[in-house]
Amino acid sequence: MVQKGFLSQSAMQDELRNLFEGNPMGVAIMRHERRADGHVTARRVFANNSLADLFLAPSLEMLMQQTVRASWVDHSALERVNKAFSSQTRIVSFEAERIRFDGSILWVSMTSQPIVLGGEELTIVWHLDITDRKQAEQDLQASETQLRDFIDSSVDWFWEMDADLRFTYMSPNVERIAGVPPEWHYGKTREDLLGPNYDRAVWTKHLQTLKARKPYRDFVFLRTGDGVEEKWLSSSGKPIFADDGNFLGYRGTGTDVTERIENQELRDASRAKSEFLSRMSHELRTPLNAIQGFGQLLENDPEHPLAPVQEVAVQQILQGGSHLLDLINQVLDMAKLENGALAPSIEPVDTSSVLRDCLTMAASMVDEKSVSIQTETPDGGLLPFVRADRMRLRQVLL
Fold first, then answer.
1. pLDDT for 10-40, tens place per residue?
2. CA angle 174-176-177, nearest 5°?
3. Which site among 64, 131, 152, 301 is 20 to 30 Å from 219 CA-CA?
4. Comparing C-alpha atoms, which of 233, 257, 260, 258 is closest to residue 167?
5. What is the pLDDT of residues 206-265, one digit of tens each?
6. CB contact at 8 A, 223 and 191
7. Is the Cβ–Cβ distance between 20 and 27 less than 8 Å?
8. Cα 87 versus chain centre, distance
């Protein structure tokens, strides 16, 4: 007994059924119905096992029992397809998102063919799984969008030149960075962009690199031209070859290094100053270490003990030498300060102890000027501890 709603064996030739059953593509035969409100619906009257596998149906019977609408994501697209089916209009490679039995989404490309079986107008629909292709397209589109975002926000621009070493492409952000539109470069060689005072020896070497079709990095040149601002640019590129080995040109990046070049002399002067301070500081350490060493020998000589007055004087020498060494270390810190690498050493500091050291080192100057320094606290006690850099606090007090 034939199940109601399905084609009988007499309505389909055995050859046609066998063709559909053995087809690796998902095949369905659809019957269409137009309701009184004009809405067109369709239901499957035949499906092969490949279609059941495509939708991950637990069985062919469950696939046949499922409503077609339940497998569509975009019901408006389903409505358009059903109208085409009911009007016996053929569709070719119609792509749509569909829903598998496990709830996952797949992309299907559908092609239809109107047929008449058993005197009834039906539609054969072939289903091709294009999920992998769609995913690849989406990934490619996402990559292209990501690349465009990188290009737009980059401090570099991208360029290409042909086999004659003439520019054929500049990324749009070259105008924002270098001040000239991409079209300004087209047809020009890099030699056309060089300034008149550029080092020809350097250019000749770079030209030899290009003619040898070798990659290069950080070629710096002065760009000039009518109506454009002179700028120092840096370029890096690599040669491009076809599969047959033919040279196609170069592809690479450009960077505006005008500020870097203009500040080079200042950096050189700063570096020379830092090197000078470093050498002088190390040179000063040698005699100071000798002073400190001999002072400690005098202070700690058990065979020739110092008189009280001499002992005070030696202690003054040692304290002064220690302070000078601290100052030398501060000079060495200047290089770190210029590089933003100097950080204070914050710790609990006994203010009274630091103040006593400062007063001792300043005693000779105080006597020389015939003045006196007095210290006092509101309660007559010791000064409080503070969190500070001990060496710099002493420097401020001195």
1. 445 566 667 777 788 899 988 887 777 767 7
2. 65
3. 152
4. 233
5. 888 998 999 999 988 877 766 667 788 888 999 999 999 999 999 998 888 888 877 776
6. no
7. yes
8. 54
Query: DSSP per residue over 44-98, as a string?
Result: EEEE-HHHHHHTT-S-HHHHHHS-GGGGBS-HHHHHHHHHHHHTT----SEEEEE
* 260, containing H or E segment: helix 258-262
Question: Against a cut of 0.70, is the pTM above it?
Answer: no
Q: Degrees (nearest 5) of the Cα angle 320, 324, 327? A: 140
The burial of 327, by beta-carbon neighbours within 10 Å (0-12 exposed, 13-18 middle, 19 or more buried), is given as: middle
Distance CA 376, CA 386 (A): 17
What's the CA dihedral at 31, 36, 39, 45 to 10 degrees? -10
Tokens of residue 223, six digits: 């760009």
CA angle 29, 33, 38 (to 5 degrees): 140
Percent with pLDDT over 70 in the chain: 84
> What is the SS3 assignment for 179?
coil
Between helix 390-397 and helix 308-338 the angle, nearest 10°, is 110
CB 258 within 8 A of CB 221: no
